[in-house]
Structures are given as C-alpha cells and as structure tokens.
Amino acid sequence: MWKSIVKKQIKYNKNMDICRRITLFFKADKIRNITLACKKLGYKRAYYYYWWNRFKAAGCDILTV
User: Where do the structural domains in the chain lie, given as residue ranges?
Assistant: First the structure.
C-alpha cells in the first residue's frame, strides 16, 4: 500500500533529494538487499540507515527490508 501512495508523490515532488531517498528505499525493497541497493545507486549503507531512521522517527509507515 505504501508503495502506491509514495510513487504518486514522487511523480509530483520537485525535491530531487527526497526522490533519490525514496528510490533507494524502493530499490532495497525490490532486491531485498540493502547493501546491494546502496552499491548500485552509489550510496553508503550509513546513508540509507540515516534516512531510514529519520523517516521512521517522523512516523512514516514504510515497510522494512
């Protein structure tokens, strides 16, 4: 459910940083491997977990990988 809502928001969001973060979450969920997703998109795992924890602290309901 969260994917369909977020995909619609990404389409209209002008902030590219947010779009990149959400894309990283989608990629990690799709391939079921955070390390590999970060490698493919050129991010460090610490970047993923930093933003993942920020989203969770803000109350966003994004499923874990």
Answer: 2-57
